[in-house]
Amino acid sequence: MKTRHQRQKLDTSSDKDPPAKKRGPGRPPLSKKRSESSKKSDSSKEIPRRRNPSRRTANDAEHNPLNDFEPLDIQSTINFKYPPKKLDRVEFPTESKQGIILDDLQKNAVLKFEEKYLKGESSVFVDETNWLKFSTISTYFEYMRLRVPHLPPSLIITSLPFQPRWLDALIEWTTSEEIYVFKSEKKSSTEAAHVYPLSTPVSFDVMIICREQFIRDAQLLPKITWNSIIIDDFSVIKAPLSSMVPQLNKLSYRHSIILSADFNAMSITDLSAVQQVIRCPDLPEGQSPTIELFHEVIEPSVLRITNEEASNNFCYHERLLACPMTQHQQKLYLQLYQKCREDMTVEEMCKISVDLRNAGTHPSLVPAFKDHNHENSTSGKIIMLGKLLNQQKSENRRVAIVCSTMKTVNLIHHSLLDHQIQHLKFDSSARTKQVTKLVQQFNNSIGFNVLIIPCNTMSTVLESMNADSIIAFDIDWTPLNDSNGIVQWWSRVETYPPKIFQLITNNSYEQLLFQYLWQERSMTLTNIENPKNADPALLMDLIKNSAKIGFDNNEAARGTSWASVLLKESPIINFSDMNLFPDEIETLPDDYWDLINPHETPQKLQPPKPLPPSQFWTTEKLIQVAEILDSFGIGNWDLFNDFQRSPQEVTKVVALLLKHILPKISENTKNEHSKSEDAKSESRNAEQEKFVYDNIRKFLAGFTTQDLNRMNIPAISKIKESINPQMLLEDIELIAFLQKIVPAECPNLEVINLEGKTSPPLSDTWTDQQDRELLYHARKQGLMHISNDFYPEFSDQLIDRVRQIIRELIIFEREIASKPTIITLRKPRIFTQADHTKIVTALMSYGFPTIDEFADSIDLQKQNPESIDRYVKYILRFCAAPIEDRRTILPLLAEKIPKYTASKIPQRVQLFQQIRESVHKYHDFPAEDLEFLAAIAFHGFRNYSVSPILTVACAGNCSEIKLSSRVKTLFQEKHRNHYTQIIPNDLRQRLPLKINDMMVLIDPGEITGHHTAEFIYPINYQLAVVANSISHPETQIWTLCTIHEKDGKPWFVIESKDGRDFKFEGLTPNAPFKEYRTKLMKKLGKYIPPYDGHEMFGLHSALIHRIFIDMPGREKCENYERRFFKGGFSFVSKWPIIGQFEKEPERVQSPQPVTQTISKFKYKRKLFGDILQPLVLDFSPLYSQEMSGLMVDLRIPNMNCADMVDNYMEWMSRNDDDL
Q: What are the C-alpha distances in Å from 1189 to residues 315, 1177, 1181, 1186?
């Protein structure tokens, strides 16, 4: 800014010279400009106050002590009278040079400062944010400079860390070029140009001095009546305000503002100093000074801006970086729009919305584009991030990068590794302690460092993180998500002015969505992209407008030079500016998708040739595999379908990954035998405290060394650096035990046994029932995917809680198994050849689901699940081992397994695993097939005697061959019909309804909402099923299965039809049939296979499911998985005869043509010979229909049906004597 007064020559050689004209505020009289030579010759005259000028050297110019100068008396140069009589009308300065806007809070504070200044009153400015003070006070200086002519200079007394912050703020918010620092002890490049030159005094508007230097050298400041004195951050322990009062009393000033971040934390000494500095009224006479009394006196002078006010008024800003797309990214991005159409469902629009945002971030985040990317594919955001981090590194800042998901975290992680940028990242398994430790490590780092944070943990991290800059990599997190947290974070940053950068993709759906959420701040991404909450019209408008922008501006970025230009020219946006973006979204016509490309059909990208495993399985994909295993353990292979690789390859990759990270346990059997008994006992106790990874080793036993050696995956060798191997292995074992104690479908959580749990509850109100809910939730949703909505007050503790509970249950189980009474008194289970045969037969006909289910399905005299489990593992190891290795396992078996059986057992085990997985594939198999598969999964190929479904399926004549053949046929069937049948309105009038030859539906009951994903439990539901009598076990009777309601839960009851033979009940369908089976075995004195309670209640029946779907109240069962049906059902109202079954349909062979030799064949009634079996048509279901007649057209190839019927009728009319 140019000097407002004309310069005059200052001549000190004679007192008779005319006095110098008075100049502007703080401006000493100066001489005219001269040449450099004249300056050197007359230097002694220009600076008369310098002592011993002849001794000054070149080094003294830089290290000259302040005591060599006398204070400047420049009061006579100021032409100003207080209070000012004239105030100019000027426009209020509301914007900084960079475009930062002053919000209403700060504007009101500036106006109050002006009001108090004109009244001669000083103020206490309580700024809880500790950073709005910079812009507020700077704007106050600029506003008063513009309004009041010839305003004297002001003085700011601050701490050393804040000195450069005040200088930057004054330069940014004022137009003055005369802002100086009084001899700063630490000079930055910016400060060096603004240090006040005592050797050649100049005019100034604001002077900034460090607090410590003010206490020491206040007498050296220019002698002037200061317009305002700003005392900043006085509450620091090293130099409280009371220590500055003696020096302040020596200064002359008209107005003062004391700044504080916490007024209530002031000591009584500081409050007394405040009273003196701002010249408040004295304390009432006769009262002893107290903090409360000082507050009462000072309160009228206090102006406040609280954290809550700053948060509600969005008093912060960020720099917006609109990154263009790369060519490859643009091509794939526009491909998504070609899938859009006007009749999309809400779910389809939500999926398109997520895919569009992910494609704008990086194409590899979209599952449909994975195969179209190569290793060098990138995105505009990744390029921009690299440039931005290099800039932050040059400023020595600590940077936090916030992104949407762990996939994005890994994407950025690999990008930073490629660019050799040091960083820290959150692991998917990191919990509260690990997060705290990682944040502490980041906070303690010196200089440039980077922390990558997923957005779901940002709210937790923001409370303690001391980053200097925050980069929002996508819009899943913005400062609007945690306005209060941003305000508090901003107040903690002292070294550098805090900065926020928002990366968005230019001309994209993400940009349009960002602008919409900016205007509608009550909305969130969840409201827009969750099908349950989404507004279809809004979603369609957003997608259409983004498509219009994308097709109109489809120029892709080339190279990387654009990033540097964008970084310099990127705008600052203020969150308080609600009108920054357009208010409304353009409404496009309904046929917009047809107008985009009306003549050409969008061409689908041809999928490239699949990469070989060595190239496909990169470190990033192996990390994804590890994340799935960390949440769901081994066995859930459907979760790997997104990789679009064969199941055999996926299982081998998992095996190779686990084998690589599994610690090797060396066992020396000879040394073990030589140990003493005490040493063995200690070894066993130590074994209880550590994991031996039995389930992982059992899984690896199914693979030979040759199989795994064929999988050449180089990235396996680097995986340990990116995951926590020990935690992954332990979680897999914990999940295996969790699946053992928690059923997949558990309507009654009481069946989860917590005996052995010792960990204390999470709160005083936390119960064991909540622990059961937690374990069931972890079983269904995955260990690492426990929702934040599930007991949100304990969200950071739930995963660790699950781990701790399962560890305690495992230790308890091992302690029970290792009790001395069991180890010393019971001999190891020795399996006979008969036991061996039963176990092998069970593996062939039942598979190996869990040890409890397997042991329950075998008729062994002494049941010992641990011994059976161990023996089964020996058999499986024997079958999987090469022929030369089987000799070492053979001594552990009671009998050698034939070669054919050894090759067949693994196939059958895998077949039953496939069957049990298929039972829950409701969208792949019709309900009729699921009914049969569920019965096979429970009973196998041999225990069909207690299964009504299997008995009826084989018309009462079951065999392993029939059942296995039908299973094979079901899995080979590729095309499955979807048949829709209308249920008769008079269904209840037709009751009882025949379900099959062993089941009759008596009452479908009333659906009240009791259900699981697999079953619905109507209240007052009743079905009759054929079962054995307890009194006469050899006789089959009708057994009534009824569902009542008890204590708000379904209650299952079974009893004989007459109500006198037996009655059992329980919380689950299996409970009463378990008691029934026990009673029946005791009565018969022999083994009976387990009953499937759901099957006996008819809840597996396809017809029952079809009836439930159309019943009132079905909408209450939100989690129920609806089935589809491949055929129609007959609604027959009759009771079947026990023991009689409809004949199983057989293959009808085409009859041979009738020749002349047998044309005079004489029919016999009792000897049918080669006659075809009779064709029976049952027209009873048509009796209830209103029909006047019926015509049947019977046709058989190569046969005259009319003659056949005539001959048959003639034959029936003859007597036996005629034959």
A: 85, 16, 14, 9
**Same domain flag for 882 and 763:** no
* Strands across the sheet containing 449-454: 424-425, 449-454, 398-403, 469-472, 499-505, 317-323, 572-574
**N- to C-terminal Cα separation, the chain:** 134
Q: What's residue 20's pLDDT?
A: 39
- Please identify, among 826, 847, 874, the residue that sits at the C-terminal boundary of a domain: 826
Q: What is the CATH number of the domain that holds 297?
A: 3.40.50.10810
**Beta pairing partners, 124:** 258, 302
Residue 129 lies in a domain: yes
Distance CA 458, CA 471 (A): 12
Helix residue ranges, H only, 897-947: 899-918, 927-939
CA–CA separation, 10 and 3 (whole Å)? 17
What is this structure's pTM? 0.51
Q: Tokens for 159?
A: 């701490």
- Long-range Cβ contact pairs of 783-792 (< 8 A, separation 24 or more): 783/630, 783/631, 783/632, 783/731, 783/734, 783/735, 783/738, 784/428, 784/429, 784/627, 784/630, 784/631, 784/731, 785/631, 788/456
In a domain, 236, yes or no: yes
Q: Which 3 state secondary structure label does DSSP give 1101? A: coil
Which of these, 225, 97, 223, 72, lies nearest to 150 by C-alpha position? 225
Torsion of CA 848, 852, 858, 863, to 10 degrees: 130
- Statement to judge: residues 897 and 1005 lie in one domain: no
Q: Does some domain include residue 84?
A: no
Residue numbers of the domain that contains 336: 314-554
Query: With 0-12 CB in 10 A as exposed, 13-18 as middle and 19+ as buried, what is 509?
Result: buried
The last residue of one of the domains, among 311, 343, 370, is 311
Q: Would you say residue 1137 lies in a domain? A: no
CA distance 670 to 667: 9
Residues 966 and 1037 in one domain: no
Residues 42, 29: Cα–Cα separation, whole Å: 16
In angstroms, the CA 638 to CA 623 distance is: 17
Contact 1112, 988 (CB under 8 A): no
Kindly report the number of other CB atoms within 10 A of residue 323's CB atom. 26
Quick one: pLDDT at residue 1099?
Answer: 92
Helix, coil or strand: residue 1128: coil
Question: Do 751 and 788 reside in the same domain of the chain?
Answer: yes
pLDDT of residue 499: 92
The residues, any chain, with a CB within 8 Å of residue 720's CB and separated by 6 or more, are: 660, 661
461 and 526, same domain (yes or no): yes
pLDDT at 1025: 94
Give the span between the Cα atoms of 168 and 324, in whole angstroms.
32
Choose among 947, 928, 936, 967: nearest CA to 1092: 947
Phi, psi of 90 (to 5 degrees): -130, 160
The tally of domains found in the chain comes to: 6
Q: Quick one: 345 and 397 in the same domain?
A: yes
Is the peptide bond between 83 and the residue preceding it cis, with omega within 30 degrees of 0? Answer: yes
Please tell me the predicted confidence (pLDDT) of residue 1198. Answer: 58
The 3 state secondary structure assigned to 1148-1197 is CCCCCCCCHHHCCCCCCCCCCCCCCCCCCCCCHHHCCCCCCCCCCCCCCC
pLDDT of residue 934: 92
> Facing residues of 155 across strands?
207, 229
123, 157 contact by CB (below 8 A): no
Q: Three-class SS of residue 450? A: strand
Task: Report pLDDT for 155.
Answer: 92
- Low-confidence stretches of the chain (pLDDT beneath 70): 1-80, 184-193, 197-202, 234-240, 368-377, 428-430, 596-609, 664-692, 819-830, 861-863, 974-976, 1143-1219
Co-location of 464 and 538 in the same domain: yes
Tell me, yes or no, whether 329 and 259 share the same domain.
no
243: amino acid identity, one letter: S
